[in-house]
């Protein structure tokens, strides 16, 4: 592969001019919007300029170059820093977009959104997420390099702030990054001693460097405004391959603002007209030219873009040669890099669905094995519960610092980092990551799931041990509200399969859905086998008639999901003996069902018949599905520690109890 | 105060017997339940015995002794360790309850639940929570000592595991504990090298001791089975007052089981009949006496209980003397320790409600100031957003390592620890803690909120910057689903006030609700002043008629919350010009409204009139409130970065747009 060389240092004066350009682009955009965070861009401009103009490997004209470095702005509130860099370096982000910072429909929202803006590698803002996204990307980069040796040689860079360091998710990700010896990861800690509310030392005084050394990171303290120290740090970073690297850059927030630098006033508010002018005067900047970019600075960036473009071209040529030299890898290379799934995935997975009575975690696990064989992009891991979630891909070694050739990551008991790392692994562009833990711990991952949904990032979240029937572990581990709570996040598809075929449909949908996360909710306990063999196509519609009533319109229609489908079927049988015409509708994915054409939905859920929903969790959302004369059977309180069968009996989740309750209700 | 003295060491043979008793109580209970985690109790029995029988200050006959030490089992899956200790030490937990471990209705659930079992200080299981609960308790203890000098002299002890150490929340809490120099906190890290799925070094190899030193903790490595080392460590712990103390106790999981010790098989499964017998044989324990407690062991614990009882009695006498000596503190002492709120709190807060147009965060902030003056137990803090949430209590200093006399904690950007620490502060028994951050970050706190609800713990969670009208910060910060998601957690009351009086009702309800958490959801932007002055009593019912229709039954009934109430009022005015009879119902708290008598609910929401809900978030739950011919106005997708007024216009949240939409819908 063509060797990357850092650009030579620009003359000091030009570098200073370029740094000021970044600062004032940020200041002017924030002034114009009358909203934003100028402090970080001003404090970070020195090292950001040096990183982007000399050390970062990318091609602004092709943001999808697989061998590019990734840059993560974990401190997403400093978005104008990133937008200034994207514009200056030649990405498709015109100055007009900077002028429309934080306005409706612009590509420069308050916090960076990866699906909106070319060159934004991940959606950041909620602190700590970007930190873990980058660790995920570094894992993905190692995995890519292990699969296709000789093709990739890039790094993950990130800018992290005090807030990132305080958030627990960064601890989880940093510990795992140290464990995995991610020598391709370099983070700059913008150590400015100021938070939104005041001085950092009012809430934190830990020794961050020592902490990261304890994780196994290499650390280096520098003056974040001293260009020689910055360049030396980056030189060391690109020579480091054994350990993740934290550069602790002491900076001054709002650097350059005569009255507001080093104060929290400059963190989250525009400088204001007066201070903006004072800053421009102090730094020798024209007062009458907002969004001014000196020609020399334009030329500097233009020249670098040309160099980088040539590097990219050379890589393309080498990649072509690599393909020719590795015919044995070509199929898997294309499948992986394009994240291909077979056209007949649903049929393949349906064929792999076990025909036996088992827990859906086991049934889905079997399906997943087939998915793993068919989709080389599928990689993932669990939060120390692989034995319980049944998700590790067999015949593939665990990923470790010694080898990233495997497909199974051990995230440790670090659910939040797992979620955000999976986002980063997906955003890296080559993998379809899955995560796995107990459903109750989806709460620990929720901020990451939300960002996957917002950023339209493909991730598969497997959650097992749903509802109360995990039994003895008790209410701390029993998810009552979690399925409903996941359904509330926009752009999330939540599957709660009832049997092996529904597990196949869930996995198929998850692998085919490239525009957001898919949740697969599974049982610890065995579920009943379905009363008939449905067709994969009907199941894939998210809702279908599993048991059709005999003759005439239905008197009662059950709407059920997951482990309660079997219960509905059994209750329906009991009710049929009362000469009632009972239909059972299985609704493994409400979101997919709601996207079906009206005819399908009306056919599955006719107007006729009184409706009963049954799902062993919160009933809130089901009320609108069953209507005003409907019945919702669910659980609206915390569970209890006891054997599953005892819980089922006490909470009314047995066929005789359900049938009796429906009979009673029908009388009313 | 009477000086606490550790008990003398028991003779080695008796101590060994006592340790074995703990192990076999745990083993036998788990065997009987055929479910549970024997590994931790077996590995921890040595130091647990020494801590509880010699160093821990408590009175088993009065679990509410305020000057007791608190013991936190953060690794809640080791619950049988705690139950064994509670039984042996003389708490009200009969052996029969141990025999009903993990059974329906027992006081020995799979994971400890503080509201169920005397002596259980907090509900644990989801890892990391107990760690942060204990830090909160240590803060509370420092606050108590600062308020009432000379009365309290106790410590917080905790047992934390690998899982606790990996979870991000423990990092947040540990960093803050170091910052606050919590010298009253001692945690034993059960360093057993084994997780549920295998060897710890497959997912973690950080230097935990070095990390905690970086936080400012004192650390000490010991052999967790060596009684002399253990006692020496505890001697050092009770002499430490400057720094939190981490004892890293190297232990062997399942210690004593001949074939399963040091393996992950012993983590989460019963030993099984064979290995149980082998263990009993190996340790010289009778095979035929399950739940066997040797008389000498009984006597040992009984003797200690007597000593502790006398200590407690002496404390009671001193407390009486203290009261007499401090008449000037008596009123606030009683109010604080009893967590008193005035009988006319609602009227008081209503009188303090500002009569001006403002953001609800500001209106609620003003109300909270009055609450702070009336309720000395009220303390709390924010996640580096106090300037924005308006929650800091004025005229009270920030809490710092130098002084805990103040009422305002700066939690830093550590939402998750903030939530769990607040739980611990409440469970400590003297304070009503509040927390504050932006609503979108409620996701970061969700596991802690859930445990507050499950544990029936009084906490006030203030969340500001709700919905999309925070504007330019964009979708990462705009809560679409969070209000609905919080409503899904059982035993949570969610208030979303529309005006100053509703803010008063929310704060009043939150302070009076002792059985669970209350969420107060507030706007960043100004809200309209209400069209009439409602009475505090109707507002306190969670739902009331704000604008009554003129003559005859209503044609349209608006159901609105928070900032959309003013919008509904304005839209109702526009619709009234079409000769429609329009009612506006404000529903600041659905949970409270649903607990009202049916007559009130029917009076507020009559059968007459078609219903329109309006809340700037997910519409899911509103569908059942408006019924099948109703209209839900909300937001079912992510927001956007733009000025608030522009967003409102685009998403239809202006009075003319709402009125137009309702008109259109009425035609259908």
The third-level CATH topology of the largest domain in chain A is Rossmann fold
For this structure, the quaternary state is homodimer
Percentage of helical residues of chain A?
40-55%
Outline the low-pLDDT stretches of chain A: none
Tell me the CATH superfamily of the largest domain in chain A. Answer: Thiamin diphosphate (ThDP)-binding fold, Pyr/PP domains
> What best-fitting shape of chain A do the alpha-carbon axes yield?
elongated
| CATH classification, class level of the largest domain in chain A | Alpha Beta
Indicate the CATH architecture of the largest domain in chain A: 3-Layer(aba) Sandwich
Work out the number of β strands of chain A: 18
Number of helices, counting only DSSP H or I runs of 4 residues or more of chain A:
26
Domain count of chain A = 3
Describe the structure.
2 copies of one chain form a homodimer. With 668 residues, chain A is an alpha/beta fold. The first copy, chain A, folds into 3 domains: 12-302, Rossmann fold (3-Layer(aba) Sandwich), CATH 3.40.50.970; 345-521, 3-Layer(aba) Sandwich (Rossmann fold), CATH 3.40.50; 536-666, Rossmann fold, CATH 3.40.50.920. A 6-stranded parallel β-sheet of chain A has the order 9-8-10-11-13-12, with helices on both faces. A 5-stranded parallel β-sheet of chain A has the order 1-2-3-7-6, with helices on both faces. The first copy, chain A, has a 5-stranded mixed β-sheet with strand order 14-16-15-17-18. In chain A, helix 5 (129-147) crosses helix 16 (415-428) and helix 14 (360-374) packs across helix 19. Chains A and B meet through helix 6, helix 7, helix 8, helix 15 and helix 16 of A and helix 6, helix 7, helix 8, helix 15 and helix 16 of B.
């Amino acid at each position: 592969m063509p060797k990357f060389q850092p650009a030579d240092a620009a003359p000091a004066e030009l570098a200073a001019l370029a740094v000021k350009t970044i600062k004032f682009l940020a200041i002017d955009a924030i002034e114009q919007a009358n909203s934003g965070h100028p402090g970080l861009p001003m404090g970070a401009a020195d090292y950001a300029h040096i990183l982007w103009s000399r050390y970062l490997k990318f091609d602004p004209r092709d943001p999808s170059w697989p061998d590019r470095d990734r840059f993560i702005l974990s401190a997403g509130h400093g978005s104008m820093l990133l937008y200034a860099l994207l514009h200056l370096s030649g990405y498709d982000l015109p100055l007009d977009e900077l002028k429309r910072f934080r306005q409706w429909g612009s590509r420069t929202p308050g916090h960076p959104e990866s699906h909106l803006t070319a060159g934004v590698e991940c959606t950041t803002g909620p602190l700590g997420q970007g930190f873990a996204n980058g660790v995920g990307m570094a894992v993905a980069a190692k995995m890519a390099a292990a699969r296709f040796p000789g093709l990739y040689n890039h790094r993950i860079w990130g800018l992290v702030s005090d807030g990132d360091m305080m958030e627990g998710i960064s601890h989880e990700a940093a510990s795992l990054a140290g464990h995995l010896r991610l020598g391709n990861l370099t983070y700059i800690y913008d150590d400015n001693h100021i938070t939104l509310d005041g001085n950092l030392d009012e809430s934190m005084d830990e020794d961050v460097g020592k902490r990261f050394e304890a994780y196994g990171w290499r650390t280096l303290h520098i003056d974040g405004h001293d260009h020689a120290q910055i360049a030396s740090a980056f030189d060391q970073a690109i020579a480091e391959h054994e350990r993740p690297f934290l550069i602790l850059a002491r900076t001054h927030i709002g650097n350059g603002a005569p009255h507001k630098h080093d104060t929290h006033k400059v963190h989250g508010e525009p400088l204001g007209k007066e201070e903006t002018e004072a800053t421009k005067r102090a730094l020798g900047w024209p007062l009458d030219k907002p969004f001014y970019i000196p020609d020399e600075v334009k030329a500097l960036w233009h020249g670098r873009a040309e160099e980088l473009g040539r590097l990219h071209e050379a890589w393309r040529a080498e990649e072509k040669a690599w393909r020719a030299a590795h015919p044995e890898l070509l199929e898997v290379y294309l499948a992986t890099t394009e994240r291909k799934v077979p056209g007949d995935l649903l049929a393949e997975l349906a064929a792999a669905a076990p025909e036996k009575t088992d827990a859906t975690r086991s049934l889905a696990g079997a399906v997943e094995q087939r998915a793993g064989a068919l989709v080389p992009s599928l990689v993932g891991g669990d939060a120390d519960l692989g034995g319980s979630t049944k998700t590790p891909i067999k015949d593939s070694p665990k990923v470790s610092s010694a080898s990233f050739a495997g497909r199974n990551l051990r995230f440790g008991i670090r659910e939040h980092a797992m979620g955000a790392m999976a986002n980063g692994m997906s955003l890296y562009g080559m993998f379809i990551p899955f995560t796995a833990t107990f459903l109750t711990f989806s709460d620990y991952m929720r901020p990451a799931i939300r960002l996957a949904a917002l950023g339209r990032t493909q991730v598969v979240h497997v959650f097992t041990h749903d509802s109360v029937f995990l039994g003895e572990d008790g209410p701390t581990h029993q998810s009552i509200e979690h399925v409903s709570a996941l359904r509330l996040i926009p752009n999330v598809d939540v599957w709660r399969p009832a049997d092996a075929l529904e597990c196949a449909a869930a996995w198929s949908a998850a692998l085919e859905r490239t525009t957001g996360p898919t949740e697969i909710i599974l049982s610890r306990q065995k579920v009943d086998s379905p009363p008939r063999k449905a067709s994969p196509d009907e199941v894939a519609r998210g809702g279908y008639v599993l048991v059709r009533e005999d003759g005439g319109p239905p008197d009662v229609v059950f709407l059920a999901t997951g482990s309660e489908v079997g219960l509905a079927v059994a209750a329906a049988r009991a009710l049929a003996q009362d000469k009632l015409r009972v239909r059972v509708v299985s609704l493994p994915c409400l979101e997919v069902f709601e996207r079906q054409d009206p005819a399908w939905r009306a056919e599955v859920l006719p107007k006729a018949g009184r409706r009963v929903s049954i799902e062993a969790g919160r009933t809130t959302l089901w009320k609108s599905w069953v209507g005003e004369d409907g019945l919702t059977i669910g659980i609206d309180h915390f569970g209890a520690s006891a054997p599953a069968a005892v819980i089922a009996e006490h909470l009314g989740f047995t066929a005789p109890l359900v049938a009796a309750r429906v009979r009673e209700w029908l009388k009313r």
